[in-house]
């Protein structure tokens, strides 16, 4: 999940931010539309995508022309595709979150940096990747931390989709299954919960250390 959000979700959010930063007409409306999923809980997002992925009358199978037929894809029951379905649902929310953060970062970049790069003959892509993107280093660090945390929070989506079973055994789902599920194994559930806590703390501690170290130098 971390890899998918990092490779697909985060770049998608960055792309949306760059496009909306071009002062296109109706950019405020687009920002609201793309940011809307962020205001929804992960559980609600799972329910929304459940309607989209439903085997018998879901919108996706309807568009594919297989709804209600034996050829309909079981997006939740098929372990080969349900993890991808869950990751796409999580990306829908994550991309909007990243977009807003990068938009704020782009607004904070000194315009003179772009002007200087333009005078040096740099193209738009060279200016962005060699000047603008490095200038947003604080935002990039925050987004790395958020991407890791969001991937761990995907529990809500996979639990709504298929109770964290059949190929959706994410760490958070395994914790719940072992602690309060049908086959309770308290020891295993507790151990998994500690592992989840440690994984969650690593990016947070890393970010705090960098922040405090920077403040102490200033």
From TrEMBL:
Q: Where is the ABC transmembrane type-1 domain?
A: 1-207
For the keyword NADP, the answer is: no
Look up the record and give one Gene Ontology term from the biological process aspect.
Answer: transmembrane transport
Task: Report whether Endoplasmic reticulum shows up as a keyword of the record.
Answer: no
Q: Give compartment(s).
A: Cell membrane
Which InterPro entries does this entry report, sorted A to Z? Answer: ABC_transporter_permease, MetI-like, MetI-like_sf
State the CDD domains in the record: TM_PBP2
Q: Which PROSITE patterns match?
A: ABC_TM1
A Pfam family annotated for this chain is BPD_transp_1
UniProt record similarity statement: Belongs to the binding-protein-dependent transport system permease family.
**What name appears for this protein in its UniProt entry?**
ABC transporter, permease protein
Organism annotation: Renibacterium salmoninarum (strain ATCC 33209 / DSM 20767 / JCM 11484 / NBRC 15589 / NCIMB 2235)
